[in-house]
Amino acid sequence: MIASQHRILWLPGEERSWDDDVSMRSPAGVRITAENATSVAAVFSCLRILGETVASLPLHVLERIDGGGKRQARELPLYRKLHSQPNNWQTSFEWREQAVLHVGLWGDAYSELIPGPSGAVDQIVPLHPSRMKVETLENGRLRYTYREAKGRQTIYSDEQILHIRGPSDDGVHGMSIVEECREAIALARACEIHGARFFGGGARPGFILSTDNQLNPDARRELADNWNRKHRGPHNAFETAVLTGGLKPFEIPYASNTDSQFLELRRYQLEERAVSPAEHGHPRPAAESGRRDGSAAARQRHRRPGCRWRR
To answer: Which residue, 78, 189, 293, 295, shows the most beta carbons closer than 10 Å to its own?
Structure first.
């Protein structure tokens, strides 16, 4: 029996029909994947704050004791790995921050547990979730299949993998925020692209250049390119245009940013994703200042549950 699984990046050579431009494009006209979702400033800011918070927390290894209860076991080799340096190139902070990023974007974070000569864990090596396939076997155990960039495939038992899940609807795979909230992220990205293109065009809409003369396709293309090169962009805004050859400009009708509530929409897109907008540089109105401190509330309700570190 194989459990349902999220999208997997199988490379090279295998078809990726799920990754075609049409199926991944949202109604907002923007293609959003786990790879490019962080191009939305609000998404990156949320993941950065959550990752830095979890990575900066004290990390303890607890050992169960006879009669019930637990104690901190700092003498165990695993404690030094988790607390200081899990592998040869990452600090504990960097490794934990990366795991939070993977859970946020793909729903899961995986690390290979490599034993040393004594049998204890010697290296904790992160594995990219887009290359991992998880199967539920008939005996209820999990099997992990990882494919590297060059195509080499490695199979792991569940004892060889540290698997950190986000919220899950099947208990095996975490749910990807990008897949579950794709439309909201795409709308925010579309707003960013619109704003960049609007100001990149000198904060003015496009023009139609009209002439009674017959122009072939190459001449039309050259005319449009010359116009854009001389009059588009913030550095060319408000320059004087000299038209020859009977050219007449007509401004394209469009809904202004005020009419389309552009700023209000951008603000809402941030507040929809951010628990505490003030931490992202967008403080709430003064009327809400009498409520409980937003940072403390965020730590209690939203960041502590993000520490899914248990094995």
So the answer is: 189
